[in-house]
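HUMAN: Spend a minute on the protein record below and explain its fold to me.
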Amino acid sequence: MTRNGGNTKISVRNVTKSYGDTIVLERVSIDIARGSFCTIVGASGCGKSTFLRMLLSQEHPSGGDILIDGEPLPREPTPQRGIVFQKYSVFPHLTVEDNLILAEEFERSALTARSFGAARRKARERVTETLDKIGLAAARKRYPAQLSGGMQQRLAIAQALLKKPDVLLLDEPFGALDPGIRLDMHELLLELWKERGMTVFMVTHDIHEAFKLGTRLLVFDKTRHDPHAPERYGATITYDLPIDSASRADVPEANELIQQPPKNHTGANHAHIN
C-alpha cells in the first residue's frame, strides 16, 4: 500500500507480531505520508494497540521492518514519538504544572537529575506556553483529582506535546469522555495537528470519530481463519481508505461496507468491526 512517493514518514514492511504460538499481526505493509492523520479501527483483539506499541518501540516486530524517515525505527522510545492513552498517566500528588515540569525533566535528564535555576525557569516558561495552548492555564495549581475527565485528558496530551513529537500516537484517547467533552477534544486535537504538522495515528472504536478526524482510515482484521486453531493467523490491514469531505459525508455507507465479513480465507479486502 504505497501512496506517498518521497514524502513517507513511516514505512511498515511485511511486519508480523506473535507471542509464542499466537500470531497477532501478519503481513502488515503500508507507507504513511508526513503529516497524515491515520485513524485505526477494527475488532477487539485484532492488534491495533499492538501496532501502536511497535510504532513507539515499546514492542518490536517478530518479523519485517518499520522505518521512520527512511531509517530503522529506534529500539527504544524517543521524544520524536509521543503517546496518549485512554487512561491518564499523571502523578496524583503533583499539580498540573508540576506534572508537566516533571515530564520535561524526565525527558531532559533521562531520570538522573532534577533541573535547577535558569533551566527550571525555562522549563516553567515552556510549560506555561503549553498550558495556554491546551486551555489549562487557569487550572495549573490544581491536582488531577480536581480536574474533569476532559481536563485530565488535556493534561495527558500536554505531556506528550512537551516533547514536540513528529509522530503522535493515540490509543482510544477519548473513549471515556462524555460526548460534549469529546467534541471539544476533537477540535483541540485537530487544531494542534494542523499547527504542528505532526503525523498522527489514533485507535478508536467510533467509526464516526474515525471519519471526522482522519485523513486516512486503516481497518485491521483477520482475512484468514482456522476454527480449529484461531491463533494460527493474525490480523492485517484489510481496508486503507483515504478520507475527504465526500467520504466524511457518507459515513453510514462506509460503515456498511467495512462491516462486510471477509469473502474467503485467502483474504479479500473486507473487515468486521465491533
The chain has two domains: 1-80+166-274, 91-164. The chain has a mean pLDDT of 84.
